[in-house]
Design brief:
The chain has about 160 residues and is mainly alpha-helical. The protein is built from six helices and no strands. About 50% of the residues lie in helices and about 0% in strands. Helix 4 runs parallel beside helix 6 and helix 5 crosses helix 6.
């Protein structure tokens, strides 16, 4: 890509962020694309779909913070009774893996990822959350879901 095209793309991104607060881009400028948690659940070494080696960056069997479960187990745990920990972790793991594929991550998504890092380092899945903590976890999960689904960021991949 030449310097002129890079400048034009940068200006388009900046304009999209300025006018909408977030950017949705369909590009082949190397900004990547995103996949949903459902994709990541089925494309691990456990299948049933073909293995996506992005999982090797984190390891399906790596412990997920202080949950007592692995990344793979957590992404496959249904959020019983609206458990905010699992609602957030489902989207967080997908966003984490999407970043590892090279998908461009907007600032609001980085903020949600960083917030989730602190949350998971502080709480476990069975901890009782205040209404404010639960609402914040759900709000950040929503931002990450919008990223994973291609509503914000570089757009969804054609899987």
């Amino acid at each position: 890509m030449n310097k002129k095209n890079l400048i034009i793309i940068t200006m388009l991104i900046a304009s999209a962020i300025y006018f909408s607060g977030t950017a949705v881009l369909a590009c082949d400028c190397g900004c990547g694309c995103t996949l949903t948690p459902g994709y990541w659940k089925t494309h691990s070494k456990y299948g049933p779909a073909p293995y996506d080696d992005t999982w090797a960056n984190v390891g399906e069997d790596t412990q997920f913070y202080n949950s007592g479960k692995t990344f793979y187990e957590v992404i496959n745990t249904p959020p019983k009774r609206g458990n905010a920990y699992y609602i957030l972790s489902f989207q967080y793991i997908a966003a984490y893996l999407n970043n590892d594929t090279g998908a461009w991550v907007p600032e609001d998504v980085w903020e949600a990822i960083n917030w989730a890092d602190v949350f998971f380092a502080t709480y476990g899945p069975s901890d009782t959350l205040s209404e404010e903590e639960r609402a914040a976890a759900i709000a950040n999960a929503s931002i990450l879901a919008n990223f994973n689904e291609g509503i914000i960021g570089p757009g969804h991949c054609d899987d």
